[in-house]
Amino acid sequence: MNKIFLKRITLSFCIALLITGCGNKPGPLPEKPDYADSSQWYIVDRKADVDLFYIISTECADYKSKGRVMHYADTRNDLLRSKMASEMEGVEQLLAGNLNYYSPYYRQCTLESFDSDSVMNARIPSALGDVREAFAYYLEHYNNGRPFILAGFSQGAMAVVDLLEQMDDNIRNQLVAAYVIGYKVDVSLPFPPARDSADLGVVICYNSVRDNTAAIPLLSEGNRMAINPVNWRTDATPALLIDPRYGDTLTVTLDTASLLLHIGNYLRNDYMLPLIGCEGNYHCLEISLYRNCLRRNIALRARTAVEKLP
User: Fold this and answer.
1) What confidence score (pLDDT) does residue 191 get?
2) Parallel, antiparallel, or unpaired: how do β-strands 208-209 and 100-104 relate?
3) Residue 231: strand, helix, or coil
4) Which pLDDT value is given to residue 116?
5) Which of 68, 241, 297, 299 lies in the 20 to 30 Å Cα band around 201?
6) What is the mean pLDDT of residues 221-231?
7) What's the mean pLDDT in 1-23?
């Protein structure tokens, strides 16, 4: 299943980056998810002391339903659900470790919605609204006051930023850390950026490129924070990363001016599909390349949080 997830994650948000020709109207919405319905969740309950709440990236393209072009995922459509479930399951296996895992289905914007800022801005509020409701339901019915980690990739990372902006003080105290993977934090948040591998109540954010010419503004322009997920430093100290797929040795260096991660010695092109994506932008690899680093770090922060419980 990990291999299936990695293939799907390559097909996900990257496709949207060069798609053109869609309008800027929100369009019709599928039926709203009911988060009291267990079918609207992917849950693994390990009876652990800490939860991981994960928001998936863009897994769906425009499709037709009853003769209408739909720009939002239908959480009750079996084909679309299978694509979303593949990422949910893949991330659970790669990152959750011994934590409880909660991931909601939501009416995510389709790939074509990221053609331009105007299209995205017209459509994203409905997707974010679903995630807010799912998170509120999780807190009331599933969390039981436990510390939790928030994480999201791409469109899911946008939702993480949205949740952090609105989080009240009581819930804020339960947050172990928030992982904004493959997106930016270009707003003021009531949480500081991570400065090391074990600080709590912080935000982890990064975007990976060959060099600054490969940056995609939608993902990283205006970003205010970044950390190297290999050595967990915020300076330009390079780190060696063994590619978990091929065993190649890569260098990962944080450019402190642009707040982009520079990946050296990556000589493969398998992160891109033909005619899709931006050469030298490693958005599609943000979880797969760092999965071992992320899994260990999530476990470390969760353990640190539990040790500090009264």
Assistant:
1) 97
2) unpaired
3) coil
4) 82
5) 241
6) 98
7) 45
In terms of DSSP H, where are the helices of 34-154? 78-91, 117-138
Judge whether 175 and 191 are in contact, CB under 8 Å: yes
Residue-wise pLDDT for 272-282, tens only, equals 755 456 889 99
According to DSSP, the residues that pair with 258 across neighbouring strands are none
For the record, the structure tokens of 222 come out as 């205006």
Return the structure tokens found at 107. Answer: 């009416």
Q: Residue 218 phi/psi, 5° resolution?
A: -55, -35
Give the Cα separation of 175 and 167 in Å (integer): 10
d(CA 25, CA 94): 36
For residue 9, give the nearest of 166, 210, 154, 170 by alpha carbon: 154
Instruction: List the structure tokens of 67.
Output: 């003769």
DSSP SS3 for 93 = helix
Structure confidence by residue, pLDDT tens digits, 43-62? 999 999 999 999 999 999 99
Task: Indicate the burial class of 48 (C-beta count within 10 angstroms; 0-12, 13-18, 19 or more).
Answer: middle
Report the pLDDT value the prediction gives residue 4, as an integer from 0 to 100: 47
158: how many CB neighbours lie within 10 A of its CB? 25
**pLDDT beyond 60 at 19:** no
The model's pTM is 0.92
φ and ψ of 150, to 5 deg? -100, 140
Mean pLDDT of 87-114: 97
Tally Cβ neighbours within 10 Å of residue 3.
Answer: 9
- In the chain, the N- to C-terminal Cα span, in Å, equals 38
C-alpha separations of 20 from 23, 119, 231 in Å: 9, 11, 38
For residues 170 and 153, give the distance between their C-alpha atoms in angstroms, rounded to a whole number.
25
Check: CB of residue 19 under 8 Å from CB of residue 111: yes
Burial of 2 (0-12, 13-18, 19+ CB in 10 A): middle
Contact 184, 207 (CB under 8 A): yes
